[in-house]
Amino acid sequence: MTLPAPATVACIKWGTPFGPEYVNRLYSGVRRNLACPVRFVCMTEDARGLHPDIEVIDLAVEPFAEPMGEALKVANRQGAMRKVSLFRRGVIPDLQGPVLGFDLDVVITGGLDELLDLAPGDVVMRHDWVEARKGRPTGHGSVFRFDPAVHGFLYDDLAAQPYGEVEAARGSEQRYTSHKAMENGVFTYIPEDWVVSFKYDCNPFPRNYLHEARLPERAKVVCFHGRPKMPEAIAGYHKSLIRYARPTHWLQDHWVDRARADLGDRWA
Question: What is the dihedral of CA 192, 193, 194, 195, to 10 degrees?
C-alpha cells in the first residue's frame, strides 16, 4: 500500500507579536483538517516552545534586505515583505509540490483538502475584503498557496529590483504577491466562503452588539486581521465601537480546546 505524500504547510514567525502557542495551535488545526500526512514548517529566529513535530528553518536574512527596508520605510510598512523569503527555491529543503501558507492570526475551522487542491499550478489567495468592495484585484495574504518550483518569479523579481517592486506594491506583500501572479497568468481566488474575516463576516457592525460572533457554515479558515485578535475575541472585545465583540465560545473550542486535546497542555 502506497501512503499519500505529505502536504507541506508553512508559516513565518519573527519578533514578539505572536508566541509559540500560535504556531502550535495552527499546526494542530492543519493536521486535524487535512486527510493526508502533514509536513509543517516554521521559519523563525526563535524556536523555543514549538512542538517537536514542527520543522524549523532559519529566518532568512535576504541580500536585498537593505533596499527593501528603505522602500518599506517610505511606505510605512516595516517588516511587511518578510514573508517573501518563503518563496525562494530551496528555502524548504527537499520540497515536493506546492506549499500551503498561513499567517499566525488565523484559526482553522474546516477541512483544508479542497483548498490544497484548488487550481493546480496557480498561486491562490482570497480576494482582499477592502479591495473587493472597491472593485480592485488584490489577494489577501492570510492564506496562500504557491509552488517555488513554478512560481520562483515571486522571489526572483523582488531580489532583482527590491526598491522598485516594493514601491510599486506600496509596501504591501499581499499586493506584490497577487499582482505578480496575475501578471504571469497564474492566479486564482479562493472561494470567499472558505476563508472568512472575523470582523467583516463573523462579527459585523451593528450585529455584533446584539449577538455573539457567528461561524459561517462553509468556513475553513477564520482570519483575525486587525483587531480583535483571537484571545481578545474569546474574552470579549470592548476597545472599539465598531469592532466590539461578545465572548466568542466557538473560538475557544476551535483554537484552544481542540489543540490542547490534540497536542497536550504543554504545547497548546
Answer: 60
Q: Are 29 and 259 in contact (CB under 8 A)?
A: yes
pLDDT of residue 64: 86
pLDDT attached to residue 199: 97
Give me the pLDDT at residue 77, please. Answer: 73
The bridge status of strand 195-197 relative to strand 55-58 is unpaired
Exposure letters 126-144 (e unless 16+ CB within 10 A, then b): bbbbebeeeeeebbbbbbb
Q: Is the peptide bond before 228 cis (omega within 30 degrees of 0)?
A: yes
Residues of the chain short of pLDDT 70, as ranges, are 1-3, 78-80
- Digit-coded pLDDT (tens) for 210-224: 999 999 999 999 999
Q: Which of 60, 83, 72 is nearest to 164 (CA)?
A: 72
Q: What is the pLDDT of residues 39-71, one digit of tens each?
A: 999 999 999 999 999 999 999 889 888 888 888
End-to-end CA distance of the chain: 34
User: CA 142, CA 106: separation in Å to the nearest integer?
Assistant: 7
Distance CA 125, CA 188 (A): 7
What H or E segment, with its residue span, contains residue 176? helix 173-183
Residue 66's CB is within 10 A of a number of other CB atoms, namely 10
Cα atoms in the 13 Å half-sphere on the side-chain side of 182: 13
